[in-house]
Amino acid sequence: MLRPSFLNQLAAMKIAPGKRVSVHYMLYADGPEKELIEETRQDDPMIFTYGDDPMLPKFEQALLGLSVGDAFTIAIPASEAYGDEQEGLFIEYPKSAFIEEGELDEELFQEGEIIPLESPEGDIIEGVVCEVKLNSIVLDFNHPLAGEDLLFEGEVVGVE
Length: 160
What we know:
Helices cover 10% and strands 39% of the residues. Strands 1, 2, 3, 4 and 11 form a five-stranded antiparallel β-sheet that branches. A four-stranded antiparallel β-sheet has the order 5-10-9-8, with no helix packed on it. A two-stranded antiparallel sheet has the order 6-7. The protein has 160 residues and is mainly β. The chain is elongated.
């Protein structure tokens, strides 16, 4: 027969709001090729406080109630992850807008290059160069995973 104190210890080891959670995972873009996007290392799990840190809601919901050693597979459609790509977040800038100290840094104008810009409020936002034209560049301000269905496969390695 299980004692109430032992039952309380078991409940304390399950993922719940306010618990500090450690997980190892592999994140895939869940297309036909199931492309690996990122993964944690054995010595460096992802650690977050359930309900307090900014996590994808569907990711957190799927972990609720799991314990150390539990494996998980979580599929999240793009609409519930980072949304679809928005055409309005592709913005064209003249190359002349990037002149600093009288010089134009041509190295900035490579597809895939990340360019930090300052918003009118003083926030830094990053755009990815997605097209280089003769006198302008097109920057993509969508989240890098916008439009992607995501698949997480992993294991809970800690609950405190």
